[in-house]
Amino acid sequence: MFAQPSARLLRNRAFSTSAAHRTTSVTLKALGLDAYNLGVYNGTWGGNGNIVESVNPATGEVIGAVQQANLTDLNQTLDHATRAAKVWRSVPAPKRGEIVRQMRNALFAKIEPLGKLVALEMGKILPEGIGEVQEYIDIADYAVGLSRMLNGQVVPSERAGHMMMEVWNPLGVVGVISAFNFPVAVYGWNSAISMVCGNSVVWKGAPTTALTSVAVTKILAEVLETNNLPGAICSLASGGAEIGNAIAQDKRVNLVSFTGSTNTGRTVALAVQERFGKSLLELGGNNAIIVHNDADIDLAVRSVLFAAVGTAGQRCTTTRRLFLHADIHDTFIERLIKAYGQIKIGNPLESGILCGPLHTKQAVAAFEQGVSDVKAQGGKILHGGNALHHLAGNFVEPTITSIAHDAPVVHREIFAPILHTIKYDDISEAVAWNNEVGQGLSSSLFTTSPEKMFNWIGPEGSDCGIINVNIPTNGAEIGGAFGGEKETGGGRESGSTAWQQYMRRQTCTINYSGMLPLAQGIKFE
User: Fold this and answer.
1) What angle do CA 73, 76, 80 make, to 5 degrees?
2) What residues have CB less than 8 Å from 13, skipping those under 6 apart?
3) d(C-alpha 141, C-alpha 138), whole Å
4) Per-residue model confidence (pLDDT) at position 239
5) Contact 120, 56 (CB under 8 A)
6) What are the distances in angstroms from CA 21 to CA 5, 223, 356, 391, 430?
7) Are 108 and 115 in contact (CB under 8 A)?
8) What's the rounded Cα separation, in Å, for the pair 172 and 201?
9) Could you give the CA distance from residue 74 to residue 202 in angstroms, rounded to a whole number?
10) How many Å apart are CA 324 and CA 210, to the nearest integer?
C-alpha cells in the first residue's frame, strides 16, 4: 500500500496566491498534476518516501510537492521493470518504434504546458523550456527510424561452409539518473533510444525537478496503457542520493546512464563496475571557444553570448573559457561587454528575458565563491560579478573575467554564467590551453582558415568529444553522438552509433558444412 500525505506533512506549505501561482495552477492542471503528487510509477502510481517540494527559482514560491520512493518502492519497481523488459523485448523493433512514435505525438500535444513547467521548475527561459521538450520529440522521431535499422553485420569466415555474423539484442533494464538542468531532454535521449532497442527504463530524475519527471511519465504511461503494454516499461522512482546509489548497485539494472557532476559520476561508475555492470556517463564540462584573428567577429560575439549566458550558464555545454587572439582581443572584449549590457535578467516566463535564475541558493553561493576566487587568484571582473539579492529569486549577473589560463578557478567547472577570457598569441598555444583541463566535453574554434579548421578536428587538435567550428559549444543536434572524454566520462548519447550502448553485441558462427574445421588451421583429432 502507498501512503497518503498527512495534514501534518503538508502544513505550512508556502503556496502563493500570486498571479505567478495562478499560472502554475493552470500549467499543473494541463499536465494532470496537483499540489501533491505521487512520484513512483511501475504500472501503478505510489510512493512511500519523503515528500519533496519543488520551488520556483525565480520567485522562491512552492510549485507543488512529490512523494518520493523509498528503497522498498525501488525494489518493487525494479521487479516490475524486469518483468516488463521480458515482454517488451519480444515486441518486434519496428513495432516498438510505433509505440515511441505515439509517445512523440503525446509529448507534442503537451509541448506548451510541459515547456512552461520546465521554465517554472528549472528556471530556464520559456523558449528554452519548450525547446527542451522539442528535443525529446526530435529524438523520438530519430528513434522511430532507428527501430528499422538496428543492423548487425555479416563477417567473412575463414572456414568453408561457415557463416559468421554479429547481432544485437536488448540488455534488459536501463536505469537513467538525470540532472536538474535538462529535466526532459536527457531522459528523452536515453528513453527513446533504449526503448526501441528493447529495454525497459527506470528513471530517477533530480529531486528539484520532480514535478517534470512525474509529468513526463504520465504522458508516456498513458500511451503504454492504451496499447495494453506494461506501464513498468517506463518506470519512475523519484528520489535523492539513496535511490541513485541503490540503482547503481543493483544487478537487475543492466546499464546505468548517469548525468551529473564528475565527483558523483565517479562514485556511480565505481559502484556499477564493482558488479560488472555497464555505465554511460555524461559528466562535467569546462568548455572553451577559441576566436582566431581571421574569424567572423560578429558571428563569434553572438555565439559566445548565447553559449555563455544561455540557461544562466547551467548547461553542461556552456562556454566557460574564451581564448582570444591578441590582434582582436580588445575589440572583441569591448563588443562582448556591450552585448552583455543588453541582456535582460528576470522571470523566465516573461517575454524578452534572456537570463533566468540559477536553480538553487547553493548555486548562487557557488557563483559568489567563484567571483571571489577570481579576484584572489589575480583575475579581474570586466562585467557583472554580483548576485542580485534584492530580487526574490536566485538571480546573478552574467559575468566576464580576465584571468590567467592556468588559474585554479579556471580549471574548475562553476555551474553559473561566469566566462573567463584569456589572451593568446599563437593558435597552438590556445589549443593546448583548451586541452589542459580535466574535462573534455565541448569546444569550438572560430576561424576562416581551412588549414586551422582541419588541424582543430585532427589528432593534434581539440581532445573533446564535441569539436565545433564557427558555431558555439552548446546547442548540439540529436543526430550526432553527444558526450565527452576524460573527466566528462566517455559516454555517448543520442545519435550516430550511441544506440549500441543500450544493446548486447553477440558474435554468432553457424556451421552448415557437416565438417568441423577449426580456426587458425588447428588439428585436434
Assistant:
1) 135
2) 35, 53, 62, 65
3) 5
4) 98
5) yes
6) 22, 30, 18, 17, 48
7) no
8) 9
9) 9
10) 41
Q: Which are the contacts of 283, defined by CB distance < 8 A and separation ≥ 6?
A: 258, 259, 260, 261, 262, 265, 316, 439, 484, 487, 488, 489
pLDDT reported for residue 16:
42
CB within 8 Å of 327: residues ≥ 6 apart: 293
pLDDT of 19: 60
Written as nine digits, the cell of 525 is 583429432
CA 402, CA 26: separation in Å to the nearest integer? Answer: 45
Catalytic pick among 197, 234, 316, 464: 316
Respond yes or no: is residue 316 known to be catalytic. yes
Q: Is 355 a catalytic residue?
A: no
Question: How far is Cα 487 from Cα 492, in angstroms, rounded to an integer?
Answer: 13
The three cell numbers of residue 196 are: 526501441
- Nearest 5°: the CA angle 307, 129, 147 is 95
Q: Which residue has the cell 564535441?
A: 466
Q: Which residue has the cell 559502484?
A: 271
The one-letter amino acid at 26: V
Q: Which of 78, 64, 69 is nearest to 47 (CA)?
A: 69
Does this model's pTM top 0.85? My answer is yes
Q: Which residues pair with 383 in a beta bridge?
A: 400
Residue 125: CB atoms within 10 Å? 25
What the block records as the C-alpha cell of 470 is 564557427
Residue with cell 510549485: 63
What is the distance, to the nearest Å, from the Cα of residue 456 to the centroid of all Cα atoms in its chain?
26
Q: What does the pLDDT read at residue 364?
A: 98
Q: How confident is the model at residue 335, as a pLDDT?
A: 98
The number of helices, as runs of H, and strands, as runs of E, in the chain is 15, 24
Helix (H, G, I), strand (E, B), or coil: what is residue 281?
Answer: strand
Rounded CA-CA distance 128/108 in Å is 15
With cell 505525438, the residue in question is 105
Which of 53, 121, 135, 282 is catalytic? The answer is 282
* CA dihedral sign of residues 407, 296, 135, 97: negative
Beta bridge partners of 52: 66
Q: What Å distances lie between residue 493 and 21, 257, 335, CA to CA?
A: 36, 9, 36
Radius of gyration of the chain (CA): 25
β-strand partners of 422: 323
SS3 509: strand
Bridge partners (DSSP) of residue 444 are 289, 468
pLDDT at 18: 57
CA–CA gap between residue 181 and residue 466 (Å, rounded): 19
pLDDT, averaged in runs of 10, over the chain (525 residues) = 40 46 90 98 98 97 97 98 98 98 98 98 98 98 98 96 97 98 98 98 98 98 98 98 98 98 97 98 98 98 98 98 98 98 97 97 98 98 98 97 98 98 98 98 98 98 98 94 97 97 98 89 75
- 352 close to 372: Cβ distance less than 8 angstroms: no
